[in-house]
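Good morning,

Both structures are done.
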Amino acid sequence: MNSAHGECIVLTTIDHEEKATRFARELVEERIAACVTRLPAGLSLYRWESEDIAQEPEHVLLIKTHRSKLDKLESFFETNHPYSVPELLVFPAEKVSSAYSKWLLEEIGLS
């Protein structure tokens, strides 16, 4: 396992399975992400434009990419994410296996 050199995971949520899958596919097709994992059956509880607490099912997307793609990713979110205020949280990797890092960089066109 090696120290990471910009690899990161970005987390977002989308309310419908088809929208989440389409969003994920486009990220990989455009080589903004090497891989996106869609986790089903999430339940989000939050306040939105009121004092009432909303409770909605959501799909969690784990987007595997590199920090050099974050500007492009943010632009993609602005244009394509179905929410007016999308969750966009970036988690830098601390350690990454050399084989996975090599694959990730190849997939997003950085090698």
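Second structure follows.
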Amino acid sequence: MKARVSLDKEYVIGAVDKRIYGSFIEHLGRAVYGGIYEPGHPKADADGFRRDVLDLIRELDVPVVRYPGGNFVSSFKWEDSVGPAAKRPRRLDLAWKSVEPNSFGMGEFVKWAKTANTETMMAINLGTRGIDAARNLVEYCNHPGGSYWSDLRREHGSKEPFGIRLWCLGNEMDGPWQVGQKTPDEYGRIAYETAKAIKLFDPALELVACGSSNGHMPTFPQWEATVLDHCYDSVDYLSLHHYFHNDADDLPAFLASSVGMDRFIDSVVATCDFVRAKKRSKKPMYLSFDEWNVWFHSKDADSRNEPWQVGPHLLEDVYTMEDALVVGCLINVLLRHADRVKVACLAQLVNVIAPIMTDNGGAAWRQTIYWPFLYASKYGRGTSMNIKVDSPTYADKSFGDVPYLDASAVLSEDGASLALFCVNRSKEPMELDLRAAGLENLSLIERVELRHDDLKATNTAASPDKVAAKVLPADRGPLALSPLSFTVLRYSTGEK
């Protein structure tokens, strides 16, 4: 099988915002308790942060982490999570039928985020609460001092403001599962008024309005159009969420599912541009794809889980090699939409549908999906190139003809290297021909491959590197992509 990738240095999609390599920590399952925070663990620091987990997160170089939810945020009272930990109330979390002890709260998360070399993306409760709680939260977090809420933060031990720049106006407010679900007009109005209050405090803050919970919602994309009709001029991003699954154990269909993500983004972009034209606005609406991943392995186990626990085992998908291939395709989709998708959050970061898993009191290890995310984060920063892929295809009942080769390309910020991210969806090797106009001096300097003969192979605490990326010789002859593999080809451009 043969495929060709063609590009021209002068034809680009746009700059890659490093925040597309963001992630997500929700007060859900063991993401916090037993994940990033476990006092008494042999590798916990003085703050109770697991250093082994921190090392793996720093390796991923995650620029921003969304917090504290997710569905959790829609009944979250942020005041419960600040002040002396011993005095914080225990609350029932209706979203995940768990008990939230609030022993890890907002101040702890901001401190953890700085330790992890990342920024905080804070979500606001617009389910059970509204404008007043939101403006107080922003004042608590970002005002230097001399006001009630900022002085309270200082009393709680944080003299300097948190400086949080990116704020989510609620979460999945169209969802019937959401505490405080709203109609698009109800949400559009509260999003507008909340955004107005926040921008009065600081017009430089960036705000994300809720789009549809996924592209299969019955109100999609009318939800987007109605919400933006209310708040287009007051917000900076519209959110997208989507998860992917292989319930039927149909590998070709599973590998094709990223085409659905591609079309979902196109539909949202078209809706945003319709509202922009309707309002005669000069401002483009950018997108925050702040929940995406594969999610289906754990649903049966979750249905049998006992409610009202602290840090229960929930959404603990154990990922396979084929899941990693799909994640590689999803990353390619984000890169191919770098002109409009400026923020994205792999959901989530630790234990809960996550690239990193832990045992309470024990080890931390990389799941299979860790590897494509790692190498995209490492080499996928710069300018996303407008590439043309010529590849054999296969028929899919949902998406029609699907190319066996899925690819994206990023020219580094300094122009010195080009990274090509490839997923071979075929069971056959694929000979690859790269043609790059304006980059005639390309020289292959690094080749990284993720593959395994057993597509159901997983990583565990006992076998943490069963599925792992390998650096291969940078052959100068014809390139062949292994069957059912994720491959990064990194070239020197010969330019300084």
